[in-house]
Amino acid sequence: QVQLVESGGGLVQAGGSLRLSCAASGSIFSINAMGWYRQAPGKQRELVAVITNGGSPVYADSVKGRFTISRDNAKNTVYLQMNSLKPEDTAVYYCNALVVPMHRPREYDYWGQGTQVTVSS
Predict the structure, then answer these.
(1) What does the angle CA 64 – CA 70 – CA 74 come to, to the nearest 5 degrees?
(2) I need a surface site. Which of 13, 16, 63, 119 has the fewest CB within 10 A?
(3) What's the pLDDT score for residue 55?
């Protein structure tokens, strides 16, 4: 089984910074894309940023220039550095990974449990 464990959420004032981490563990053969999504109350879950195993990032327009996604393949970990946070960034942030488990023929979609990020004005 594969697990994703997130950390780093919390409460911050507008203009502040937070860094989220997500570590994948378990029976892993390889990890393809890893990313972060978020869901605010009453809204659909949306993509924040994704990064390929080669390190190419893609960002939502709303976070470009403020957020940076990175990954450490040796640690099966993805990070999200969030700067210049705004109240509209308040949401539950979910880690996502496309993982090829050991002894399985294809990749599967895994999600973390979510971590709350609250930005006060």
Answers:
(1) 170
(2) 13
(3) 86
Looking at residue 3, its pLDDT comes to 96
Mean pLDDT of all residues in 14-41:
96
The candidate with the shortest Cα–Cα distance to 29, out of 115, 118, 102, is: 102
CB 76 within 8 A of CB 60: no
Q: In the block, which residue shows the tokens 């949306």?
A: 46
DSSP state of 106: S
The tokens for 32 are 């393809």
CA distance 79 to 1: 22
CA dist 24 and 33 (Å) reads 12
